[in-house]
Amino acid sequence: MKHAKAATAAVVLALTTACSSTGAPAPARDSLIWATDSPPNSLDIAHGFNGSSTLIQSAVLDTMLALDDRGAPAPRLAAEWTQPDPATYLFTLRKGVRFSDGTPLTAEDAAFSLRRHLDPKVASQAAGYFTTVEKVEAVGEGQVKVTLKRPNPAFLAMAAVAWQVTPRKLAEKHPQDLGSPEVGTTGTGPFKVAKFSLTSGVVLERNPSYWGSKPALRRVEFKTIADPETLRLAVRSGEVDATNGLTARDARKWTGLPGVKTIFFPGNNIAYLSLAVESGPLADLHVRRAIAHAVNRRAVADLMTSGHGAPAAAMLPSPQLAALYGDNLPALPGYPYDVAAAKAELAKSAYPGGFELTARYAGSGDTGIVMQAVAADLAKIGIKLTLEPNPADQYRARMMEHERLTIHFVNLLYGSPDPLEVLPDMVSRAAAEPQGFNFAGYGSAATDKRLDALASATGQARTAEVTALLSEIAEQVPYIPLFYTDNVIALSEKFTGAFSTWSDAYFTAIRPAGR
């Protein structure tokens, strides 16, 4: 497990200026080309809560709060806030902030931007972050009052991740297609959208109305390059300046690449198998436990991280576990790799002779590699897993619609050090609905009650509630934790940058070398 100090330390990259063929320094560039391995589907977090989409959202749409390098809430659009009582927050907006079209930011804009996640008609993918919010209202000039159903110590961290602010009029007019290529979005962030196409990419330009320090980059262009080797060659040739589309597994191919620096920093992610528990063989607890024993998780972790990660200890990201427990992780029910134990569990099930199951996976990226390893392991105990490749964007859409869920590899990246960001995704009944991240369909009234208790608990009581939920997940096996990985960014030596676990401000952190 990573220590908390290591998990929050910024990784600073200092690179030399590239030289021309004549030996003279090349002119500093203020335009960056960034490649992603899949295209963004929406610039609205409500319908595009995924890595490639939120990467761009974070440059265009400010949140009310930020997280500092230690993961603690810090001012952003809210210059300050108070807590009149344990279930109430009063936010005071920063003065003089304007959207990129020049329109002044108002408290109504900020209040509505949070309130829309509570509207079931919007079907927001971020709704699970705000289940304890009762009411959001503008109260006087420049102030927003948030009333919770009960005290929730995680609320500020959740707001820092998902309370993106857009103009109320625009969001009201487009409850379902805000952030689409046809509608776009408008924000108060350091960049504005100059172009958004699902086929030809995204272009951001510096926002002249930005309230903060002017970013060093004038323009950021995003290209989608799904094939890892094509991506590596594009970065090497200078066609692309940077990417976070490489994996820890492939890092050895990038390290030492001429003119490119590969940067690693602790990731707040959890990679796991999701087992749909509501019907079929996976509804049988003994089947799920058999699968947990049959999958060689250490081998999968070694394959997928190449030394830049570790096997997952529980169903929380490593930095979150470290922040909560330090080095004293509690003992949880476990299923070490043991083929004999797997066969014994399967013999207790309604499927002692095994069974066949079809599982879809994304045709690009790491999903297929993991699922092929899983299929090989399960074959040893009589479970035949037929793998069905899908285009990455189609696969993602079907997953979010909860269409034909069985066994799936999932790798989710989170934004805060609070376990309440993750656990509702895993076990709340609300997240088991389409557009939620509970792909196992696991949950009950009792589990929701336990999540409610966690939302208002503090101190040792809070730690005890997290432990109880992790124990329940380990006992019932709707998920099988696989591995943690470091985040990896490849950046041309023509640029410098500083990155940390908790920061999403990649494009304000990057500047031409020599500046």
Automatic annotation (TrEMBL):
Source taxon at top rank: Bacteria
Transport found in the keyword field: yes
Domain Solute-binding protein family: 73-427
PANTHER family, alphabetized: OLIGOPEPTIDE-BINDING PROTEIN APPA (PTHR30290:SF9), PERIPLASMIC BINDING COMPONENT OF ABC TRANSPORTER (PTHR30290)
Family annotation (Pfam families): SBP_bac_5
Signal peptide (UniProt feature, chain positions): 1-23
Protein name (record): ABC transporter substrate-binding protein
Family: Belongs to the bacterial solute-binding protein 5 family.
Record-linked SUPFAM superfamilies: Periplasmic binding protein-like II
Keywords carried by this UniProt record: Signal, Transport
Species in which this protein is naturally found: Nonomuraea typhae
